[in-house]
Amino acid sequence: MLSIFLKPVLLLSMPGGSEWILILLVVLLFFGGKKIPDLMRGIGKGVREFNDAKDHMKGELEAGMKEKKMD
């Protein structure tokens, strides 16, 4: 009976407005106001490093494909 209400599509959907407010309040309680900028800075640095690595791999693959075509 309960499995009828817990469909996988509903469990994987994005949170709505009230859920985002709750998530932000929990983050604020856990980390405090002074730690949040450091946390965001760390997340931004991680995303930047990921994008740099992705671009580097893309360049390597494209260079390898060009080299293969020249042979």
User: What is the average of the pLDDT values?
Assistant: 83
Helix content: over 70%
Shape: elongated
Number of strands: 0
Q: Tell me the Rg in angstroms.
A: 21 Å
Oligomer: single chain
Low-confidence stretches: none
User: What is the H/E string?
Assistant: HHH
Beta-strand proportion: under 5%
Sheet bearing the most strands, described? none
> Roughly how many Å apart are the termini?
63 Å
* Total of helices: 3
The helix-and-strand class reads mainly alpha
How is this fold's topology laid out?
Blueprint: H1 2-5, H2 8-11, H3 17-70
Can you describe this structure?
This protein is mainly alpha-helical. It has a domain at 33-71. The protein contains 3 helices and no strands. The mean pLDDT is 83.
Question: What can be said about this structure in brief?
Answer:
The protein is 87% helix and 0% strand.
Features:
71 residues; single chain
